[in-house]
From TrEMBL:
Transmembrane segments: 6-25, 45-63, 83-100, 112-133, 153-178
Annotated protein name in UniProt: Riboflavin transporter
Family: Belongs to the prokaryotic riboflavin transporter (P-RFT) (TC 2.A.87) family.
Superkingdom of origin organism: Bacteria
GO MF term set: riboflavin transmembrane transporter activity
Role noted for this protein: Probably a riboflavin-binding protein that interacts with the energy-coupling factor (ECF) ABC-transporter complex.
Keywords: Cell membrane, Membrane, Transmembrane, Transmembrane helix, Transport
Primary localization class, coarse: membrane
Keyword flag Disulfide bond: no
Family matches, as Pfam families: ECF_trnsprt
Length: 194
């Protein structure tokens, strides 16, 4: 296992900044509630993971959310949404990374992105039902949602939203990957860490 070197730290800082900017360029999808926003900030984290290993991807996800929390704050006063975004990013990039490392090809990347999208969508539905939606209502001092109401929100909104978000991110990433795959693989062979 190689340690993060100066080049890796600089790249992680740069990719975190890009991820933060992409996070600011979020937008809603009309059929979904306003707290569900599409952004492409997981793409730099995936690039970091592919080049420097999963720790780098995790750090990019962490730094972009910390930056966003300090710059924009949170309606709840605590970073519930930022924690949810961090977890969703990890659930997308880590399965994609691990599948791609086993099948180093465009087909492997496609399968990885499909698995990453599926893991993120299903896991975030469950986590929203059990953790994030109750936390939002508690910190916003709102009346607690009933079980059927939370189940409906998780199944009717959060699950399809995360599938759509994953498909959009995967589509954009595949365009980037098609142009940069040789460079990413070359950088990866020079800089891999665990």
């Amino acid at each position: 296992m190689k340690k993060l070197n100066v080049k890796a730290f600089v790249a992680i800082g740069m990719l975190s900044s890009i991820a933060y900017i992409l996070m600011l360029l979020n937008f809603p999808l009309p059929p979904f509630p306003n707290f569900l926003m599409i952004d492409f900030s997981d793409i730099p984290a995936l690039v970091a993971a592919l080049i420097f290993g999963p720790i780098a991807g995790i750090l990019v996800e962490l730094f972009k959310n910390v930056l966003d929390y300090f710059m924009t704050g949170s309606a709840t006063g605590v970073p519930v949404g930022h924690i949810a975004n961090f977890v969703a990013g990890l659930l997308f990039i880590l399965p994609t990374y691990y599948v791609y490392t086993k099948m180093k090809s465009k087909k492997g990347m496609t399968i990885g992105l499909i698995i990453g999208t599926s893991v993120m969508a299903v896991s975030m539905s469950l986590l929203n039902y059990f953790v994030f939606l109750p936390a939002y209502t508690m910190f916003l001092n709102m009346p607690a949602m009933s079980g059927p109401e939370m189940r409906s929100t998780a199944v009717m909104f959060i699950l399809p939203f995360n599938f759509i978000k994953g498909i959009l991110m995967a589509s954009v990433f595949m365009l980037v990957f098609a142009k940069m795959s040789n460079w990413i693989n070359k950088q990866r062979s020079l800089n891999t860490i665990a």
